[in-house]
Write a structure and sequence with these properties.
It is a single chain. The chain has helices at about 30-45, 75-90, 130-140, 195-205, 220-230, 250-255, 275-280, 295, 310-320, 325-335, 335-355; strands at about 15, 50-55, 65, 100, 120, 140-145, 160-165, 185-190, 210-215, 240-245, 260-265, 285-290, 305. It is an alpha/beta fold and about 350 residues long. β5 (about 120), α3 (about 130-140) and β6 (about 140-145) form a beta-alpha-beta unit. The termini are close together.
Length: about 350
Amino acid sequence: MPSPSASPDRPLRIALVADPYIPVPPKLYGGIERVLDFLVEGLAARGHEVTLWAHPESDVPAELVPYGVEPHHGRVVRTRELLQVMTGLARRKGDFDLVHSFGRLAGMLPLFPSSIPKIQSYQREITPQNIERAVRLAGDSLSFTACSTNCRRDVSHIGKWDTVYNGVRLADYDFQPEVGPDAPLVFLGRIEQIKGTHTAIAVARATGRPLVIAGNVPETDEHRRYFDEQVAPHLDGEQVRYVGPVDDVQKNEMMGRAVAFLMPIEWEEPFGIVMAEALACGTPVVGFRRGSVPEVVEHGVTGFVCDTAGEMAEAVGRVPDLDRRASRDRCERMFSDRAIVDAYESLYRRHIASQSSP
């Protein structure tokens, strides 16, 4: 018979762990920190007791355990940060019903021998050897989530896995039911080869649509050279414009005015929160068949999944025939803050119940 800890309506005591590099919520860039922000807020609003290990400048409706050693790089510094989490969790493991880490898997190492339910979430490439070692040490007390099914494709056979998508705070994005006939295409992301900014430009040229490019150019010689050689020569201030990094207000306005958001990625991107942001505004997504794009975009309904730049240009011509309400509805159903909090809360209760059963 399940113990009281498995009761379906009992408030839970949850420890969440974030990397210490960016505050929760982030002041500028920080995808997973935005997810953690609404996750903490949503869980607290439902009566759960939440404790968050995170950057000292975090501001959440929960107990904050600040940690981190600037400048956050180098073996000695990273080891000190890891020890801060390890010792903190070990000292307080009796305070929680479940520990959920979005940080480094090794941070939960002292808890592996214990039966306390543990969840490790991945938003990045996953190393099979690390998962194998962790499962050997922790057994069934440890389970995993990935932000897309594609993200965990090489490790799903090792341990227990669930897909829980990333998402957006839906109230931060205004649904735009229609746009004008001359509405632009939008590209938003880091300006680098694997994000496909150059392909977005080629698609805009092929379709005759204006293109607005937003995002930062990473501070490396490689990325600066990419911008100078493959992006800057095409900027004319009219058909192709670069507006630099944008804040949340600018992003909402820019996405809402767009006829489509372009996602011409050249790598297996684990999720891409920017796609959910576009859908929240009602803006269809036209992307390449890489990473999570086929999971996020419902082909022919909320956008198009393509294999070539030519297909992408052809798809842009079909976007005006789509119902923008379908994009907003899909975001609300699958990628909204409520949907993500629901998914994690359900997972917590299932995992706790599985550990409580004889």
